[in-house]
Structure formats: structure tokens, C-alpha cells
Design a protein that fits this description.
The chain is 23% helix and 27% strand. The strands form 6 sheets. Strands 5-4-1-6-10-7-11 form a 7-stranded mixed β-sheet. The protein has a 5-stranded parallel β-sheet with strand order 12-15-18-21-24, with helices on one face. A 5-stranded parallel β-sheet has the order 13-16-19-22-25. Helix 6 crosses helix 7.
Length: 341
């Protein structure tokens, strides 16, 4: 995928969040949700990433700034097609593949992206879209196929006919396109739809009418491609991310006595044979050595804990270090500038 550029759409406000904070900046396990699709793109070998910003763009740029990330501004949010079209100048002369991800889809995995991209390459398609079957497809764009299963078009829920609303295969918003086709097709996208916007999915019908290869590739796990749209979705995402993070630590030799009551930020590092008792909260860049016991209800924020530390229940450690072999009494509060116990 060295000749693949990834565009991540992150310009919207996310009105259903009911928040003054841009949707993609809402944290999941201590990181803004946009961090996760960026990491998946990197792990899949995308050498360059363009983030389309708009609402609170300075904050979004600060949150994800990195040497491999560039930013393109969508001054007006005129639809997903417009969001991609504003990247044309930044990709002038590029004739490789463009992977399009959404900044509010934190669980997409490198394995799924790799499989998607491989299928796209094997088919020699001009455009591929990732799809999934849902028990309740309400609100999503439907994948419209022909009698032989070939992809004809994507129809948004608001524009679908009654028969099309019965389709349970939906558009995930993840695409791969040949760059020359993508920007040529976007020039042909109009606004004759319920929202009066430039819809990115319209490039499917444009490609098909031009005699080019278009395909929808079905993925099996809907949770990987679920967008986070409101506070309920954010809570579900936090719960699922905690399960992923905690499983990673337990596989590495950490004992978590009650996972449901434990919270671990994605940046935390924990050594082997450390025990986290119920109610433990690890925030920020907390680092814990090996062979430690972290008592029930302890809260550690950007803390550095040495090896073989025993911490009683209810301790709070903030921006401070605890040396090897220390024993911290229950309900102790240690913060930056205080001497270690």
C-alpha cells in the first residue's frame, strides 16, 4: 500500500453529540476518537494521510499533528463528496489509490483494511466500497445490487424507495478509489437529493455508467465499522475499547481482578505480574512496573510507578513517580512536587 494515500473525513460538528466539542475529538480510552482510524491507516501501510478539517479545525489539527499527516480545509460542509473533492489540489499528480475513512469510526482494524484493499486490487476496480449487513439498517445508505449480485448504486436512506428500504446491506462510508477516477467522478456529482448535498456514494453509479469496475465488499463485523454519532454510541465505544485494551494487558501478564470496574487509558503501560484490584483507574501516560499491586479504587494520572510497589486502596497519584519497592498506605494522595513516600 505504499502508493496509497488515506483521506480521513473529520470536518463535521456532530450535532447529535449535543456538544461544543467537535465529534472526532471526543475521547475514547483517553484518546480522541480520530486517533484510532489514523492508527489503522498507518498500520495498513498508508504512507500519507490527509485529514479533512472544518469545525474546530485548529483543535483537530493539534490533536493529530504528525509528520505523515496533512490537513485540507473544508470551509463549508456541503456533503461527503465535497469533503473529498477539496483534497484534489493536495493530491495533484497522484495516480495511486485513495483510501477514504471516517474520523468517527474508531474500531476499523488494519486486517479489515488490508483485506478490503487486496480485494480492490485483485478486481482492478475503479472504486470499491466496504459494506455490512445490519439487522436494523435504518438511517444508512443502502447497497443496491443487480440480479447477479453486481453493485449498481448506493442510495441514501432519505432518498430510498420502499423496496430499497428493505435492503439490509449498508454503506460503511469506507472506500478505495483510483485517484484519477475519484476526482473526475466527483466533478459529475450533483445535489439532486433530499439533503441538497454532494454525496460521495454517487461515484458508484457514475463509475458503473462509465463502464468501469465498481464493487461492494462485505465485511462480517458491524462493530468494526460502526460510526459514533451520539453519547450512547460513545459510551458503547468506551466499553468496547476497554475490553480490547484490558485483554491486551491480560495477555501480556497483567491481572485485572474486575475488568468491568477498571478503566485503563490506551497510553498506559503496565508490567508483567502486576495486579489491578477493582475500581482501578489509569489515566494518561501512566506507567506501572512489574510485580505491583494497585489497590482497590486507586486513581493514577500520568504517574510513573516502579517495580514491586504495593499501593493500598483509594490512593491518588498525579504527575508523580513512586520508586521501586515502595509501600503506599491507603488513601494517600501524591502529586507533582511532593516527595515520594
Amino acid at each position: 500500500m505504499g502508493s496509497t494515500v488515506c483521506i480521513v473525513l473529520a470536518a463535521g460538528m456532530g450535532t447529535r453529540m449535543k456538544s461544543s466539542l467537535a465529534k472526532v475529538l471526543h475521547p475514547i480510552a483517553g484518546r480522541p476518537m480520530i486517533h484510532y482510524p489514523l492508527q489503522a491507516a498507518r498500520a495498513s501501510g498508508c504512507g500519507r494521510i490527509l485529514v479533512v478539517v472544518g469545525h474546530q479545525r485548529a483543535d483537530v489539527e493539534r490533536a493529530v499533528a504528525a509528520p505523515d499527516v496533512g490537513f485540507v480545509v473544508q470551509e463549508q460542509q456541503l456533503g461527503s463528496g465535497h469533503a473529498v473533492a477539496v483534497c484534489e489540489q493536495a493530491l495533484a499528480g497522484f495516480d495511486g489509490q485513495v483510501l477514504i475513512l471516517c474520523g468517527d469510526v474508531p474500531f476499523i482494524t488494519p486486517a479489515t483494511i488490508d483485506a478490503f484493499m487486496s480485494s480492490h486490487a485483485r478486481a482492478g476496480a475503479a472504486v470499491s466500497v466496504l459494506s455490512v449487513h445490519l439487522d436494523d439498517p435504518h438511517g444508512y445508505g443502502r447497497i443496491v445490487r443487480g440480479a447477479r449480485g453486481e453493485l449498481h448504486a448506493i442510495v441514501e436512506h432519505r432518498d430510498a424507495t420502499a423496496p430499497q428500504l428493505l435492503i439490509d446491506e449498508i454503506n460503511t462510508g469506507i472506500y478505495c478509489c483510483a485517484a484519477p477516477f475519484l476526482f473526475s467522478a466527483l466533478k459529475r456529482v450533483g445535489t439532486d437529493n433530499n439533503q441538497g448535498e454532494y454525496y460521495l456514494p454517487d461515484i458508484i453509479a457514475i463509475g458503473r455508467s462509465s463502464g468501469l469496475g465498481v464493487q461492494a465488499i462485505v465485511t462480517g463485523d458491524w462493530r468494526e465499522v460502526e460510526g459514533i454519532n451520539d453519547r450512547s454510541g460513545l459510551a458503547r465505544a468506551e466499553e468496547r475499547m476497554q475490553a480490547i485494551i484490558q485483554q491486551r494487558h491480560m495477555i501480556a501478564g497483567v491481572s485485572i481482578l474486575q475488568p468491568a470496574s477498571t478503566h485503563i487509558d490506551d497510553r498506559a503501560v503496565i508490567g508483567m505480574d502486576t495486579v489491578l484490584e477493582p475500581g482501578t483507574v489509569l489515566r494518561g501516560k501512566t506507567r506501572i512496573g512489574s510485580g505491583c499491586t494497585i489497590g482497590a479504587g486507586c486513581v493514577l494520572s500520568n504517574a510513573t510507578i516502579g517495580n514491586s510497589v504495593h499501593m493500598g486502596p483509594g490512593c491518588v497519584i498525579e504527575d508523580a513517580g513512586i520508586p521501586d519497592g515502595s509501600r503506599i498506605s491507603a488513601c494517600s494522595h501524591v502529586h507533582a512536587g511532593m516527595p515520594a513516600p
